[in-house]
């Protein structure tokens, strides 16, 4: 929470009057290896330089952590995160879904990695009560436009809102609208930047489906987004701008990224900037009372057993629970629950993982004016 006087802190599931609690996380990759252990796996063939079957990723994970099993229940990957969601009771649950939901065989030529989940495994998302899937990322078109069309149809059919991709540019740029009782809304706008590997020819046009492409990360583009959000915003709305940007590895935050985030906040374009693409957590900033998550890290992936980036601890993830003032969108407080991916399933992070996350966020937040402490309920608490 802020170091200035604040209302009494809420604990666990208790929510203060006039506050909106969100659940945000980074990349949710329920395709490839994870899809293979669910009840209805898609054909496992891949076109990677070293892996020709999604089952290779299952074997890697089992070699590292033990047997996983097959035909597991849809809720399996969420594991202990489901109890956390039930206890924290967020008003809206927003994830970056970094996989196509399709049986399409139209694999993107020349692309090294192709993620897909069988549409019959879609209950994996609905069991977690996901309200909105952000699709403006570098994997939603892995299986071509047919794969995107099926992804959109499946999510819409399951009642899951989408942001950042659509059948044309107008749909791709439109916000997902999450109605709140008794009034108010959460609007989610999503953008995919080329710095995260989103190909320029994936951009939605007037006549072709695709992603809501962010051509450049700059103060000018942030101003344009502020104009767009203002056209949709009503009094009492909470606006989340979700951006897939930057590389997979590295804690550094570029000057252009900070300038973009600051201008977006300063122009009134966002109450929360939800950044993702990095496979690990990055520093957090609060600008004029508004939350900036530069990189949320992966939340679910099938990387278990892959070596080479151990110092970034990509098996550790966070469930972010910002609590916002319903009238102004300003951040009242934020807690984050540390989690670990093990055997393709989320579990509460062990003590050493909690300490690593706290120390990392604290270290990376110093230049951004934030610090992180351990709270009594097992979460990490943000201070600014």
Explained architecture:
By secondary structure, this protein is an alpha/beta fold. It has one domain (about 20-384): Metallo-dependent phosphatases (Purple Acid Phosphatase, chain A, domain 2, 4-Layer Sandwich), CATH 3.60.21.10. It has helices at about 35, 55-65, 80-90, 125, 145-155, 170-175, 220-230, 255-265, 350-365; strands at about 20-30, 90-95, 100, 115, 130-135, 160-165, 165, 175-180, 185-190, 210, 240-245, 270-275, 285, 290-295, 300, 315-325, 330-340, 345-350, 370-375, 380-384. The strands form 4 sheets. Strands 1, 2, 5, 6, 15, 16, 17, 18, 19 and 20 form a 10-stranded mixed sheet that branches. Strands 8-9-11-12-14-13 form a 6-stranded mixed sheet. The longest helix has 15 residues, at about 350-365. The protein is globular and about 50 Å long. Residues about 1-10 have low confidence and may be disordered.
In short:
With 384 residues, the protein is of the alpha/beta class.
- Please identify which CATH superfamily we are dealing with: Metallo-dependent phosphatases
| Helical residues, percent | 10-25%
Count of DSSP-assigned helices: 9
Structural class: alpha/beta
Q: How much is the average pLDDT?
A: 94
Order of helices and strands: EHHHEEEHEHEEHEEEHEHEEEEEEEHEE
Estimate nothing, just give the exact number of structural domains: 1
Q: Indicate the CATH class.
A: Alpha Beta
Q: Which residues sit in consecutive blocks of at least 5 with pLDDT less than 50?
A: 2-10
Distance from first to last alpha carbon: 6 Å
What is the fold-level CATH name, i.e. the topology?
Purple Acid Phosphatase, chain A, domain 2
Shape: globular
What's the main sheet like? 10 strands, mixed
The gyration radius over C-alpha positions equals 19 Å
CATH architecture: 4-Layer Sandwich
Question: What is the number of beta strands?
Answer: 20
């Amino acid at each position: 929470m802020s170091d200035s006087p604040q209302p009494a802190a809420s604990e666990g599931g208790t929510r203060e009057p006039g506050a909106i609690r969100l659940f945000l996380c980074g990349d949710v990759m329920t395709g490839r290896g994870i899809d293979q252990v669910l009840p209805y796996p898609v054909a496992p063939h891949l076109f990677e330089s070293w892996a020709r079957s999604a089952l290779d990723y299952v074997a890697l994970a089992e070699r590292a952590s033990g047997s996983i099993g097959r035909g597991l229940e849809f809720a399996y990957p969420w594991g202990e995160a489901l109890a956390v969601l039930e206890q924290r009771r967020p008003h809206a649950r927003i994830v970056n879904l970094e996989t196509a939901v399709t049986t399409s065989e139209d694999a993107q030529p020349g692309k090294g990695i192709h993620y897909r989940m069988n549409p019959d495994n879609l209950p994996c998302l609905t069991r977690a009560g996901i309200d909105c899937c952000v699709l403006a990322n570098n994997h939603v078109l892995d299986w071509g436009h047919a794969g995107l069309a099926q992804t959109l149809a499946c999510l819409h059919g399951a009642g899951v809102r989408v942001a950042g991709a659509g059948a044309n540019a107008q749909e791709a740029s439109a916000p997902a609208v999450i109605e709140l009782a008794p009034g108010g809304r959460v609007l989610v706008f999503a953008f995919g930047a080329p710095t995260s590997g989103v190909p320029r020819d994936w951009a939605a046009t007037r006549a072709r489906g695709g992603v809501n492409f962010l051509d450049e990360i700059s103060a000018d583009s942030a101003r344009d987004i502020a104009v767009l959000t203002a056209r949709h915003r009503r009094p009492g709305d909470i606006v989340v701008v979700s951006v897939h940007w930057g590389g997979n590895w590295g804690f550094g935050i570029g000057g252009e990224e900070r300038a973009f985030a600051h201008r977006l906040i300063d122009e009134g374009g966002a109450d929360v900037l939800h950044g993702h693409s990095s496979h690990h957590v990055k520093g957090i900033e609060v600008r004029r009372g508004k939350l900036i998550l530069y990189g949320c890290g992966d939340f679910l992936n099938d990387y278990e057993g892959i070596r080479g980036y151990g110092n970034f601890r990509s098996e550790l993830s966070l469930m972010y629970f910002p609590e916002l003032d319903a009238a102004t969108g300003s951040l009242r407080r934020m807690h984050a629950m540390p989690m670990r991916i093990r055997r393709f399933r989320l579990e509460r992070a062990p003590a050493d993982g909690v300490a690593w996350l706290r120390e990392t966020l604290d270290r990376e937040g110093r230049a951004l004016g934030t610090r992180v402490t351990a709270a009594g309920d097992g979460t990490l608490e943000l201070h600014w």
